[in-house]
Design goal:
alpha/beta, 2 domains, 9 helices, 36% helix, 237 residues
Length: 237
């Protein structure tokens, strides 16, 4: 049998035929073309078009470059979880944490939201530009998220509230009550980058503006870290 072997497709073998001959006569079965033999190739099944969720996630993954972790804490939800959320019209929800450093915000995230929401944190992303881009990706894909920053002022919170509400998200605020002495004591137990200067705690307290429903929150919660764990109740401003 003449011809140059190209490779293996399924269980059949394809042999070279000039491009001109292929255009003149489709390769549907054994045939003689100018003395060359073409062996039938099993027809390929048409590829199923990607669903809208799969296509959306593919775009997100291409923008991110890869899925995984940044700084050990940021993570994008798995392809399956994003697809399920988009295809089922899952409620789009975001949370904005408010509180002094060492008031329990990051521990609360790990306990309540680690498996279900994307983390957006300046401690991880380091710059406002990166933070903005991660927020935009969450909003574009309908991915639930948590903003874990101190967010002491209305202006700080508006940075996330306005675009999230415009995108149709429900936003809950979580105010972490903690006195300066309590936060200083917890901070003293931290090591390395996790520990912040004491002045940062005092400065944050001096700028703190208690959250209000009028800012655009759909719900507000008071969270207190006690010896027995976290206690959460509706916030009464």
């Amino acid at each position: 049998m003449s011809g140059t072997r190209l490779g293996h497709v399924g269980i059949s073998h394809v042999y070279a035929v000039s491009a001109e001959q292929q255009l003149r006569k489709p390769n549907h079965g054994p045939a003689s073309l100018s003395g060359r033999t073409c062996v039938a190739q099993r027809p390929r099944q048409p590829q199923r078009p990607a669903s809208a969720p799969d296509a959306t996630v593919a775009v997100v993954e291409s923008l991110l470059g890869r899925r995984g972790s940044i700084g050990g804490r940021w993570r994008l939800a798995s392809r399956s979880s994003v697809s399920r959320g988009l295809s089922r019209g899952a409620s789009m929800r975001g949370a904005i944490f408010i509180g002094l450093p060492a008031s329990g915000k990051s521990s609360f995230f790990k306990e309540q939201f680690f498996r279900s929401r994307v983390l957006i944190s300046l401690d991880v992303l380091r710059t406002r530009n990166r933070e903005r881009r991660w927020l935009e990706l969450s909003l574009a894909t309908g991915q639930p998220f948590v903003v874990d920053n101190t967010n002491p002022t209305r202006v700080d919170r508006r940075r996330y509230l306005l675009p999230a509400k415009a995108a149709g998200f429900e936003i809950a605020g979580y105010y972490f009550a903690g006195s300066v002495p309590e936060c200083l004591a917890r901070n003293a137990l931290r090591a390395g980058d996790a520990r912040v200067p004491d002045v940062a705690i005092r400065s944050c307290r001096s700028r703190l503006e208690l959250p209000q429903p009028s800012e655009g929150f759909d719900a507000l919660w008071l969270v207190q870290l006690t010896d027995g764990g976290f206690r959460q109740e509706p916030w009464k401003s």
